[in-house]
Design goal:
9-stranded mixed beta sheet; 17 strands; binds 6-O-phosphono-beta-D-glucopyranose; alpha/beta; 14 helices
């Protein structure tokens, strides 16, 4: 991310009164304003179907900043930001109204609308003559399956060039995720052991303690596979496993990611476990089961947990299983990668205090803890030869004494700057759908297993432990 103001442009948020705009986009834009990282000139135009006006939109933005920004609203700097804010009512003015309010030749259009409305919105934007000089941000999920993703790609590419399109996957904007590239390619030590000769298997967990809250309707159409695994998890995995790019220019990085996506083997039914939370206790609080949540069918079979075993068929990774899982209402919130190295081949320490020699493990903790730790064996001081695992630890907070920046700030700034590095390219998105497509439309004749229940506050259904056995999940 450059620390310069992007060139002058208007920013248009389509769906400006929705949850994402209030929780993430408006606070992120405000923080960019505070850091002098918004364009020198340009409006921020909110667009939504329901009637509103500039002054009400300013009030909504102030409320959003007060509630969700990591820096408090500063009365002195607010008026300059508020002055940029304008509102266009979709139901009466349409996108022609947006065109009238735009002041700059360039504009960033952010589609913060339900995925089912993407194609229609893109057509309306094009019909209103807003494509020239525009960049378009689309928020995941990019389609509902392979066919709908291809339909969306077609509608988009008939109107916008690929260089105009920015597919946001906010995990790629997380500081700790970007550090994966520095960790791998900036340190000569780890890259030497980053392959099948040294690594036994890799685990990646995205566990959330929250349930579906007020998003039951959305989740009923989505489920864990589409919401997290197909996008966030596979995108981060591609950074963990791709080859070194020839430079850090965006297309060089995205070319390597695409190659990796094409080496992922499409899933088969045996590679997947689906789960759904039942009532339980999370962090000491009783919570209802998924089927009791607002907006959820009491007979729903939608998965709130998914675990998969994935293979990457290339020279580096052939034979190394990747175990990936995500779930809502898990024991605690954590997003972390565990790289488990091969066991030591020697046997002369066996029976010296631990059952089996524990393999070395590298743990990359993405959130809420931001740290990297390496677990290795050490001799317990004393006259006996006893061996125990110990840890070397790096923590962002302790080493750098700063809070990592919000993903949306970084990504919005990069999109205004035209930098694609942290955005998903059409070919990778298409391949990610191909990878999950065989297990997406369950139940089918070949793949009929049902969702397995798990109590809220646990680490998922027992079938997930069977998927990884005889190995064990970290954490568990
Ligand atoms: C979103 C999903 O993409 O990511 C949500 O739609 C999920 O269901 C969220 O809760 C998690 O994001 P984060 O940054 O809190 O891990």
């Amino acid at each position: 991310m450059s620390l310069e103001r992007p060139a002058d442009q208007d920013i248009v948020i389509v769906g400006a009164t929705g949850d994402l705009a209030r929780r993430k986009l408006l606070p992120a834009l405000y923080n960019l304003h505070l850091a002098n990282l918004l364009p020198e000139k340009g409006k921020i135009i909110g667009y939504a179907r329901g009637a509103s006006d500039d002054s009400k939109f300013r009030q909504l933005a102030a409320g959003a900043v007060r509630e969700f920004s990591h820096t408090p609203l500063d009365e002195a700097s607010w008026p300059a930001f508020a002055e940029r804010l304008a509102f266009v009512t979709g139901s009466t003015e349409g996108f022609a109204g947006v065109r009238r309010r735009c002041e700059q030749a360039a504009r960033l259009l952010y589609l913060s609308v339900p995925a089912s409305a993407f194609e229609d919105t893109i057509r309306q934007i094009a019909d209103a003559g807003l494509v020239d000089g525009a960049r378009l941000i689309i928020e995941k999920p990019f389609g509902h399956d392979l066919a709908s993703s291809r339909a969306l790609a077609k509608t988009t590419s008939e109107r916008f060039g690929e260089q105009q399109v920015f597919r946001i996957d906010h995990y790629l904007g997380k500081e700790t995720v970007q550090n994966i590239l520095v960790f791998r390619f900036g340190n000569s030590l780890y890259e030497r052991v980053w392959h099948r000769d040294a690594i036994d298997h890799v685990q990646f967990t995205v566990a959330e303690s929250i349930g579906v809250d007020s998003r039951g309707d959305f989740y009923e159409e989505t489920g864990a596979l589409r919401d997290i695994l197909q996008n966030h998890v596979l995108q981060v995995l591609s950074l963990l496993t791709m080859e070194a790019p020839s430079s850090f220019k965006s297309e060089a990085v995205r070319d390597e990611k695409a190659k990796l996506f094409y080496a992922m083997r499409p899933l088969s039914c045996d590679d997947l476990v689906r789960g759904q939370y039942t009532a339980g206790a999370v962090e000491g609080r009783r919570v209802p089961g998924y089927r009791e949540e607002e907006g959820v069918d009491p007979q729903s079979n939608v998965e709130t947990f998914a675990a998969m075993r994935l293979h990457i068929d290339n020279w580096r990774w052939a034979g190394v299983p990747f175990y990936l899982r995500t779930g809502k209402r898990m024991a605690r919130r954590t997003t972390e990668v565990a790289v488990i190295f091969r066991e030591s081949p020697v046997t002369y320490f066996h029976g010296t205090g631990i059952e089996r020699l524990k393999p070395n493990m590298l743990n990359i903790s993405i959130q809420p803890e931001e740290r990297i730790s390496f677990q290795f064996l050490a001799k317990v001081p004393g006259t006996e030869m006893r061996v125990e695992p110990v840890e070397m630890d790096f923590s962002y907070g302790e080493s750098f004494k700063v809070q990592p920046a919000e993903a949306y700030e970084r990504l919005l700034h990069d999109a205004m700057d035209g930098d694609h590095t942290l955005f998903a390219r059409a070919d990778s998105v298409d391949r990610a759908w191909e990878v999950v497509e065989p297990v997406l439309h369950e139940p089918t004749a070949d793949c009929s297993h049902q969702v397995a229940p798990y109590p809220a506050g646990s680490w998922g259904p027992p079938q997930a432990a069977e998927l990884i056995a005889p190995r064990l999940w970290h954490p568990r």
